[in-house]
Amino acid sequence: MTNELNLFITLLEDDMLNINALLIKNCSKLNINEKDVFLLSALARQDSKGNRIFQRKELKEKVSLSAEDLNTSLYNLTEKGYLEISESINPKTNKNCEIFSLKKLYQEIIKLYISKDEDEDKESSLQEKILKFYDEHYKKQMSPLDADIIRTWCKEGTFTFDEIKDEMLDCLKMGKTSLSSVDQALIKKRTIKEQSPEYIETNRIIDELKNKWKK
User: Fold this and answer.
1) Pairing relation of β-strands 84-89 and 96-101?
2) How far is 49 from 182, CA to CA, in rounded Å?
3) Taking a C-beta distance cutoff of 8 angstroms, is the pair 149, 167 a contact?
């Protein structure tokens, strides 16, 4: 993450990143609102110029927010950790001042895109495995319907390659060469599994642990 963060900051300083666009695009994932975006964008632009001195009055003028809205956003962003404010010494005046850091915000944005890349890699890997298996075991040209089914499996990621492979083999043994038969069988098995007492109890325990962790 350190290398990615350094690259992110370098691109920001070189004015090669549109931080405002990134924040708007990911505001729901970051759990921030429009006013938070204004505030973070202004601070990020200031940060990109090497100035991390926090000046509330100047910031209020830049973002055109009321004092109440500004305070609300500052509180929310510091609570989320996206904005950190600490005491320091101004090197120019040698007086006490406040400085800010957006390090966690940058890290969270990077995580969103790393996660996206990993999901795309998994999707691509699953598709390659299925296509290879199809070519080896199905002695026919792939139909548009079969191609759509494979794309859906890879996009949704509901089934593992082993689940798909085993069902493809079972259907082939029964003389069923369309992947629609495989898809129906996979969905049926998944539905039965999700309705089993063991599955329901396991998910209940997982949900309880997640809730405790959030607290």
Assistant:
1) antiparallel
2) 57
3) no
Do 133 and 168 touch, CB atoms closer than 8 A? yes
Contact present, 160 and 189 (Cβ < 8 Å): no
DSSP strands (E only) in 13-126: 84-89, 96-101
Confidence (pTM): 0.53
Q: Which residue bears the tokens 């199905």?
A: 138
Measured CA to CA, the distance from residue 198 to residue 192 in angstroms comes to 11
Q: Which residues pair with 53 in a beta bridge?
A: 99
pLDDT in tens, the chain (215 residues): 566 677 777 877 777 777 888 888 788 888 998 889 889 999 999 998 889 999 988 888 888 888 899 999 999 999 999 999 999 998 888 889 999 999 999 988 888 876 655 555 566 788 888 888 988 898 788 888 888 898 888 888 888 889 999 999 999 999 999 999 999 999 988 888 777 666 565 555 555 544 544 44
Which one, of 30, 29, 58, 26, lies nearest residue 45 by Cα?
58
Q: Which helix (H) or strand (E) holds 70?
A: helix 67-80
Please tell me the distance from the alpha carbon of residue 188 to that of residue 198, in angstroms, as a whole number.
17
Q: How far apart are CA 91 and CA 60, in angstroms?
A: 24
Sequence-separated (6 or more) residues with CB below 8 Å from residue 159: 153, 186, 190
User: What does the alpha-carbon distance between residue 150 and residue 67 come to, in Å, rounded to a whole number?
Assistant: 54
- Give the bridge partners for 84, in sequence order: 101
